[in-house]
Amino acid sequence: MSEVTAPAPEAPSMLLEDQLCFTLYAASRTVTSAYRPILEPVGLTYPQYLVMLVLWDRGPVAVKDLISALQLEYGTITPLIKRLEANGLITRHRRGDDERVVEVALTAQGEALRERVQCVPTAIGEAMGLTAEEIDAVQVILRRLTANAARHA
């Protein structure tokens, strides 16, 4: 009686277009660049827009909480905050109860800008060419992917 052996497992593809990391990278760069023509007229970059989204949602926040919300490093967030402050959209100050904590808050001009960018989510949704259900499904998968990858990092 002869022994039956299982076929050798196929080696993973080493083609660039087969790499999940590259697909995510290309999608991220493409989606981010779609924001440029929409945000440029209001004087924001995409990363600055993300900072503003947090502030519009949460109100004044400590810089460390902003770092956590945006998953950025201190060295990355500081220039964003400085530029937004120079443009009159936010203020920075040390908290009275704990001077170690720097808090960021919207100015009246920063709060007013919210109205001018209300069209951004719809415009980006249209640029992606996905239904609301497809966007929700992609977000669920990407959040799970992010959580799983973070556990292994």
Topology:
Blueprint: H1 20-39, H2 46-58, E1 61-62, H3 63-70, H4 74-86, E2 90-94, E3 102-106, H5 108-116, H6 120-128, H7 132-152
Antiparallel strand pairs: 1-3, 2-3
Helix pairs in contact: 1-6
Keywords: Cytoplasm, DNA-binding, Transcription, Transcription regulation
GO molecular function, one term: DNA binding
Pfam families: Staph_reg_Sar_Rot
What is the name of the CATH class of the largest domain?
A: Mainly Alpha
Strand-residue fraction? 5-15%
Shape: elongated
Give the proportion of residues in helices.
Answer: 55-70%
Largest sheet: 3 strands, antiparallel
CATH structural fold name of the largest domain: Arc Repressor Mutant, subunit A
User: In terms of quaternary structure, what is this?
Assistant: single chain
Count of domains: 2
Our Rg estimate from Cα atoms comes to 21 Å
Average pLDDT across residues? 94
The number of strands is 3
Tally the helices: what do you get? 7
Unreliable runs, pLDDT <50, ≥5 residues? none
- N-to-C SSE string, H for helix and E for strand: HHEHHEEHHH
CATH architecture of the largest domain: Orthogonal Bundle
Strand order of the largest sheet: 1-3-2
- First-residue to last-residue Cα separation: 48 Å
